Sequence to fold (128 residues):
Amino acid sequence: MRKISKDIAQAFRDGRKKSISNTMTDGNQVFLHGNRIAWKLNNKKVAITLAGWPTPTTRERLNAIMDVFGWEFSINQVDGNQVISKPSQDGTRERVLTHINDNQVITLRRVGKFGQTLQAETWQAPPE
Fold:
C-alpha cells in the first residue's frame, strides 16, 4: 500500500481533513481527481465506488480504505473485469465474491460484534 493511500484512508477513518497530491478527504468523503470514491453513510457503513475510473490508482485508494477499516475485501481486475474478492480461508489466493461495474456503489458494513464479520451489498448508483 502506498503511503498516500494509507495516509488518506487513515484521515478518512478518523474524520480528519487531508489532501495529498490528487487525493483529498474532508473526513466524511474521499475524492480522487475530484471524483467522489468513498463516503460515510453512518458510523457502521461506508460506500465506495470506482466512479467510472477502474484504474489501478482508484482500486489502490479503495483497497487502502477497506484495509484501514479492517475489512478483508479488495477490488481487483480479473480478465479486464472489476471484482470484489476476499482471501480464501487458507489465505493462499483471492476468492472472487462478485463482479462490479465501473459506476456501481458498494456499501460495506460491520455486522459482527467485533467488526470481524462483514457484509457487502451492491446496487447500481442512481444518475446524478
Q: What stands out?
A: DSSP finds two helices and ten strands in the chain. The two ends are 31 Å apart (CA to CA).
